[in-house]
Design goal:
single chain; alpha+beta; 4-stranded antiparallel β-sheet; 4 strands; about 65% helix
């Protein structure tokens, strides 16, 4: 097997070594051709105000506030509306106006924007651009747009909840008014029950089944109306408290700052060529073994199958005094010699004798 591998390498050495050389060089050239960029960074402080009694249903309780906001920001960065809103207020407006502006913006932010949760409450934002002013401008716009979008989403959900509870309260009050009207009609038609109610109270009047049923409907409607009113008051309190808490717990901890000099990313300059080199070595090794395994030629008895019937072996004879010409056979014999199969080469001695 070693002989086949070595012979396949010497036979196809150019094709095998090509991925190891070409792929890392292409990746290194691509990384080095990227112009140096300014990097802007900012710190965003996020937390849930525990001193305000309000609920946030879209928060994952098992993640930190910074991780929750980072997940939301990553999802927003995948939408065209958010990217267009950021680009239109920055120097990227020209790119957004192109026919392929959405795809170009998505590639730019995927390559040059980073967000990471540092601890439980600090969210670090970074953006790189060839212009220092553009890097600062885009990073500030991202924070402003993200905060505005989060506030708008929360306000829209709150208004939807308030509208729902207001509808429930209106229905409950209408049902209560109908039940009270029915009770008033019953008392007007039954003077004796009304007299008993005014003298002895509700408990004695409940002895009449019809009055008891009418009073029960009124009490049930009253409870439903009270519950709907309580839910509406709680929703309005949540909206008010949530708005105040959002303003207090979603703020810019560190103002955007950019590097004074442009630089290339060391991560891409080092990791990407190394990864390309590893990939090239794997590809070259795969090609080498593919060539070796696809070579089914028989060079010795050891290459035959165990059940092969051997009728005879024709020895290889080298006539004395005949000079051996250089050719591919010499290379194969040299490879076989390295692999352990010693093949006598007496061409040199024959040339000396002649």
């Amino acid at each position: 097997m070693i002989e086949k591998v070595l012979e396949a390498f010497f036979r196809h050495w150019l094709l095998i070594l090509l991925p190891v050389i070409v792929i890392p060089l292409d990746v290194a050239a691509s990384v080095l051709s990227t112009p140096p960029q300014y990097e802007a960074s900012a710190g965003m402080w996020v937390e849930q105000a525990t001193y305000l009694n309000y609920s946030i249903d879209d928060i994952n309780r098992y993640l930190s506030p910074a991780q929750n906001q980072r997940n939301r920001l990553v999802e927003l960065m995948q939408t065209r509306s958010f990217l267009d809103a950021v680009a239109k207020n920055t120097g990227l407006a020209e790119i957004a106006a192109r026919p392929t502006g959405s795809d170009d913006l998505r590639d730019i932010f995927a390559r040059d924007f980073e967000s990471s949760a540092t601890g439980d409450h600090l969210l670090t934002l970074k953006f790189r651009a060839e212009s220092r002013d553009l890097a600062l401008q885009v990073l500030s716009t991202i924070f402003t747009s993200f905060r505005t979008r989060a506030a708008a989403d929360r306000y829209g959900q709150a208004q939807l909840a308030i509208s729902f509870y207001q509808t429930n309260l209106s229905d409950a009050e209408a049902t209560l008014a109908t039940a009270r009207a029915d009770l008033a009609k019953f008392l007007a038609a039954n003077v004796n029950i009304a007299t008993t109610l005014s003298r002895s109270g509700v408990d004695v009047a409940r002895a009449d089944p019809q009055f008891a049923e009418a009073q029960r409907r009124v009490d049930a409607a009253q409870r439903d109306a009270d519950k709907a009113r309580e839910s509406l008051d709680r929703a309005e309190l949540d909206v008010s408290a949530g708005t105040k808490g959002f303003e207090l717990s979603f703020r810019l901890a560190d103002e955007p700052q950019a590097s004074l000099t442009p630089s290339r990313q060391l991560k891409k300059a080092l990791i990407y060529p190394i990864a390309a080199l590893v990939f090239g070595v794997i590809l070259s090794a795969s090609l080498l073994f593919l060539f070796a395994l696809s070579d089914h030629s028989i060079r010795s008895i050891a290459d035959l199958a165990p059940d092969t019937v051997i009728l005879g072996v024709l020895p290889h004879l080298t006539p004395e005094g005949v000079a051996r010409r250089s050719g591919p056979a010499v290379t194969r014999r040299a490879v076989a010699f390295v692999a352990g199969a010693i093949v006598p080469l007496r061409g040199g001695k024959a040339r000396e004798a002649s």
